[in-house]
Amino acid sequence: LCLGRGAYRLHGVPRMHERPQAELFAALRQLGYRIDTPNDHLPAIIHGGGPRPAACQVSAAASSQFASALLLAQRPGGWRVEILGQNDDEMPYVEMTRRMAETFPQAGGRFTVEADASSGSYFVGADILQAENGCEAGRIAIPRWPLTPWQVDARFPRFWPLPAEVSRQKDLGDSIMTAIVLAPFARQSVRFVELGRLRVQECERVAALRTELAKCGARVEEQGDTLVVHPSQLHGAEIETYHDHRMAMCFALVGLRVPGIRLRDPGCVRKTFPNFFEKLAAAPPHGLGVVIRDVATGARLQGEQLRAD
Length: 309
What we know:
alpha/beta
């Protein structure tokens, strides 16, 4: 909006008023733009002035999204953006944005947008569960899996069998949640370490994963920012998703192997993957052919009934 010439009012953006925006607003003010807001949160009025060569500093310590947004607008804005407060959790996403911006054909041409590896991890996980249940591995094909190392979660297929330890900072990004819900089906106990970032996302994900896996009969120990998940015999349970899209998709994955998994507020997947359940239920080769039922009526749900609008 700063690159436009008018004034733009931002308000009514779902849940965005709950997130910190002060860091981003401060960086834009360093670049010379005017932002009217009483408390450095939405709602806000942004006064655009077009490209304005200037420099700013922004921290990636709390979130990579501020840094990524500024980097994407850096070239058309004529800005110089310095990233401060780097941390191992967030920098892979900043570097992915930087590389994409550098290689994008500014003068026109073709640019391949990679598939989202974090969302793809659920279908890799589904294939893993089939193999662990005695079926042939590789029956679920994921076309166009990312070929570059830009996405940290593109590594996910290499993390089965799960090693004894997996780090949120060094090994996997968001897909570490997928690995955690697969861990009860592993052949050994697995330590998931450096999970602090998960505590400050859509919900307190460390506690949520421990609580909901325990409901299913998993033996899980929480020690600081570490979860130790032991091989366990799971059973059905009603799962609280905490309005968190990844909690819903992770435990839907558990439901592919464990009968009786019931999800509260499954529609929260609308944030990143609104047709997730539609994809699960679609007949092969376009889906997995999973039977999904309405908890209240027992009726089978199919097609657009499963789309989260």
